[in-house]
Amino acid sequence: MPSLKVITPILGGSYYHIYNRGINRQIIFFNDNNYRYFLRLMDQLITPYVSVLAYALIQNHFHLVIKVNNFLKTDSIEISDDGEIGKIVSNQFRKLFIAYSMALNIQEKRTGSLFDKNFKRIEITENEYLKYAIFYTHYNPEKHGNATDFRQYGYSSYSAIISNKTTKIDRKTVLEIFDGREDFIHYHSVLHDERDEFRDE
Known about the structure:
Layout: E1 15-21, H1 32-45, E2 50-58, E3 61-68, E4 72-74, E5 77-79, H2 82-108, E6 120-124, H3 127-143, H4 158-162, H5 171-177, H6 181-187
Antiparallel strand pairs: 1-3, 1-6, 2-3, 4-5
């Protein structure tokens, strides 16, 4: 009997690398409006529940690094249970994928699933791993040939983090993780050995 793959649960207060791709690696972003719509849905459905530390949207997949809030207040109900918060956040991601898939199916005159069934998540428990996940997320467009220089890529959080402009990214936390803006830029100026669990994404 084949073993079942265990899906890492999302818990309040924890850090995660979240990623998913189009089913059969098919394209999920066809034009600039698609990228912008996905980011709007993220703002509406995800950022009220998590701190977004990094993101990159690539033609057939995406990466996020988040910290899940450890306290939620919804409909006058205060929630601090980590497991319950995790269920709510997982459901918000499900809503994001459904809403985006419905819009893209109409646009492309297609039917059926758009994303792989279960979005992937890796819990991050070490600061060095957290730094690497943020770097890897930003570097991903260059890795896959969608940009010649990932620092110039339009649909990632790199430029928002080094900028002083208003952003939904939790810039303060990111810069604390890297001990400041200069160290953040320096870390992103060096190619780091790719970790095994990242090789296929």
